[in-house]
Amino acid sequence: MSTTTTYSVSGMTCGHCTSAVTEELSKLVGVQDVKIDLVAGGTSAVHVTSESALDEAAVRDAVDEAGYELAAS
């Protein structure tokens, strides 16, 4: 059974931003799908569907690698 977790990510402004975050998060083991509700210049909602709960540090690292910041939940 899969689980979907929503993370808040700040700094994204365009489709390229969402592509970069999606690409990095998709590299994490167990990730099945990534959907992003983009709020340009604000805090965007990133919905990650995975086989099991993801380690938040790994998610934070992936978002950082894409050049953005995981906002406090």
TrEMBL record:
PROSITE patterns: HMA_1, HMA_2
Classification via Pfam families: HMA
Keyword RNA-binding: no
InterPro entries: Heavy-metal-associated_CS (IPR017969), HMA_dom (IPR006121), HMA_dom_sf (IPR036163)
Keywords: Metal-binding
Domain HMA: 3-71
TM helices/strands, residue ranges: none
The protein's name: Copper chaperone CopZ
Source species of the chain: Kribbella pratensis
